Write the structure tokens for this entry.
Amino acid sequence: MPIGKFMEKKKDDLIEEALAGKHRDFTGTWYYIAATIAVGTALYHIYTAYFGAPFALLFRNIHWMLLGSIIFLYFPALKKSPRHKPTVVDILLVLATIVIGMYVILNFDAIAGRAGAPVTADIVLGALLVLIVLEAGRRTVGWPIVVIAVLFLIYAYFGQAMPGLLMHRGYSIARIFPFLYLTDAGIFGIPLGVSSRFILLFIIFGAFLDKAGAGIFFRDLSLALTGRYVGGPGKSAILFSGFIGSITGSSTANVVTTGTFTIPLMKKLGYKPAFAGGVEADASTGGQILPPVMGAAAFVMAEYIGVPYVTVMVAAIVPALLYFITTFFMVHYRALKENLLPVPKEDLPDLWQVLKDGFYYFTPLIILVTLLVMRLSPSRAVFFALLATIALSWIKADTRMGLREIYEALLSGVQKALEVVAACAVAGIIIGMVTMTGLGLKFSTLIELLAGGNLLAGLFYTVIASLILGIGVPTTAKYIILATLVAPALVTLGAPLLASHLFILYFGTDADITPPVGLAAYAAAGIAGAHPLHTGIEAFKMGITAYIVPFAFILGPALILQAPLHEIIIACATAFIACAGLGAAMQGYFVRKMPWWHRIILFVGSVMLMETTWSWDLIGLALLGGVFMIEYLAERVLKQDAA
């Protein structure tokens, strides 16, 4: 069976299985009610992208009122809840969300005038909003982020009972709930601000690209570019999943979306289930650090550190390339090691035909990046990229986007954004309590004390905090939490500001492929029919660069292009060589299966090459060169003996 037909056959069954218990599937009247609200929400945000948004607190409140209402319609409270209609509880939650939002809209001037002196309605509605946001987070993202938020609320209330450095004066509910409800430092803080201005728009943009046929084009292009070579199916999965993962904003969501194509293809051509799932989880997670979109977390980063988005995007280019190049090498060596076949020639799409039929799909991305480089706001840039996508869809009759297709893309974009929006709202609770209690400064002080003023020790403590706090939390939300709690400590210990924030983004993202949890690996294992732990180990090995490169660009910022040109060139060249060494070390193969001690030497040498000090580079080159030469000569001797 041709590869394309095989993947299409599997797609619907796998998506349905992977998403079971998540979204409702409305029919009849409720479909039109929910869809109308969702499409209206999308159109409103697109309108504000071009014409401008209201005052920040007001706009974020409207954003949550609309998206929060949709969450309770589309996400059931329990697995046994009705799948085709909302329950009475769902409808009451929708009405409560609307009432809470309208209260701010109708009383905005009065609320601003009595800032710091809340009335009873402020307290009651604030408490209700907190409960609603927590419930929305539970339904969409799951318990981990909700538990974290509740612990922070408890910490704010019982501050006087906390030990040592963690002690503070404690705050009453009359202070906590209005602070979270009626200020731009709580639920309607930076997380929902970025969600309302950037994240939702970029996810809608991704939905339009997919509806216009770009998803199929990039899938076929990935296969055409790599399918005929050693490890072709895995390499095409890396390209396809990495690109789509950059837009989705969630490693797990991307696994479910693209893994339904890539994992069955790899398994069909001989890849073991755990390895196929590991490749997909690794590439989908890497998409969160891949410019130009970087899963939307980069927009939050730019907001936090006060730099243009393009600055973050440029700094992330080389680390992202190192991540994916290492994964390419690993797939390549694994395919050689296990004698895995490339995609049969007759099943491959023709590269030139694919480019001829769909080269114009690059245009919206080029427009987006160009406008960002020209310092246009991200929301305005994505507005024009979205219009270009609609216009380009008319080039071919079978992809033309009429009113129905535009309607479906708007609906799909909003549905895909719901989990991220809920996570941002819950993150607002966490950030609000950190701000109110001063915990961020105390947490940073604690890391500084444990590190004893040593930057390297501080980095290791940050890694532990990042991996723990990153478990079960979407990329954008985990970055927000870590940026508030951890980043200031790194800066105080001497790390550059941008490098510090990229460091915590990397390790927060790494949590998705770090055993024993690794939610992206769990999702991939479900599709692959593999053991979650085995899949997680494979994903961890292939993503090993993401655990090394952050240390490298903290200690030597040439890898994030913040150094003299000659240092950047040398650092990038040696780091790319290190990718080959890491791939061979982790897979145990170069031109033959290697002994364990060769693998250790390669790993150590590769780590040295990632570090930007020239003396370490020389040692690393010597170690890699020596092992590669020994392996090459040993393989020649074996072939001569065999002959």
